[in-house]
Amino acid sequence: MAARRRRMRQGGAVLATAAVAAMTATAFTAPAQAQTRGGAHDATRRAMDAVVAGGVPGVTGQASDRHGVWKSASGVGNLKTGAPRGADDRFRIASITKTFVATVLLQQEAEGELNLDDTVEKWLPGLVRGNGNDGRKISVRQLLNHTSGLFDYTDDPDYQATYMVSDGFLKHRFETRTPQTAVQVAMRHQPDFAPGAKHAYSNTNYVLAGLIIEAAGGNSYAHEVRQRIIEPLGLRATTVPGNTSRMPQPSSRAYSKLFVDTPAGKIYDVTLQNASQSWADGDIISSAADLNRFFGALLGGKILPPEQLKEMKTTVPDPDDPAGGGYGLGLIAANTSCGVRLWGHSGGWLGSISNAVTTEDGRHSLAYNANGDWTADGMAQVTEAEFCGDGTPGKG
């Protein structure tokens, strides 16, 4: 899913997928280090190697199916030392966070704390106003499926210059940013379209969704995610980092060109960055193993009641997906070339591109991450290889 969009706007960044410059062969030709228990995942391993050969420093991934668990890593985790990418790495999952947020809101709906057809105004009075924006006309559901029409705050040129691009990021990378700041940036702009008119991805939607979680439940967004998802599922590698900047171990370094889109653009180590600058639209840190457990449990019906899971899987057309998938409530539907229907989410943020998908029944899951953000070329082929690699639907 991460590679579908030529212009990725997931997890709070506009990530161009232009071709990258060739780098030193020794830095990018390390073969995959695999640990296999049952099943054949040779095609997936080769696809991961191909992503690295195409210019990404390193890739880590894990699959879980009826044969057991398979994990692998390819390429480099640290360009300075040459240390390999780790098969158990933790990484910033960016917009995959949105699935966690939507899950919490759907649980709150099941418990009667809110209704998806409540207006944004009911929970956040007066916050979405001005320049044609009106929270009285936007529902919680429209936030979750990106049909609100609200401007994506990460597309604001001044915001990009401050927090995302080159010198701005380097200067402000450790600053705490409030969610209200992101909403205020979005309110400087007119909406892109009337609520419900169509689907267009906007990170502003999930900043507001996080604030509604807090208003409805009386606890912080981070508390609700921990209590409702992380702890019950035993996701020991998953954290909601708040305003911390460091990465938990084990993890690799994260690299970005900071949107200086030239073949010879300098590569920056962006591992350390204040997580509050993405918040509920993309701040969670996790691992491939934990993401597989989460999505497997979610699609397997172990987290949401049937009614709420059905709502989550009710999609609207996504104009960026020519394969006819669709966007549900924090959940993307995708179709592989061999006919497997997958559900999951992708995420891109400074230094990180990730994808997590699972089959309809939650029994075959795949999650993987690249520690460079300047290209998503070849990422979709990792998914194709896992689920279609041997020509048999659903088998890698």
From TrEMBL:
What's the Enzyme Commission number for this chain? 3.-.-.-
Write one Gene Ontology MF term.
Answer: hydrolase activity
> What name is this protein filed under?
Serine hydrolase domain-containing protein
Question: Which residues, by range, are in coiled-coil regions?
Answer: none
Q: Name one Pfam family in it.
A: Beta-lactamase
Look up the signal peptide feature and give its range: 1-34
Q: Which UniProt keywords apply?
A: Hydrolase, Signal
What species is given as this protein's source?
A: Streptomyces celluloflavus
What InterPro entries does the entry give?
Answer: AmpC-like, Beta-lactam-related, Beta-lactam/transpept-like, TAT_signal
Q: Does the keyword Acetylation apply?
A: no
Q: Where is the Beta-lactamase-related domain?
A: 46-373
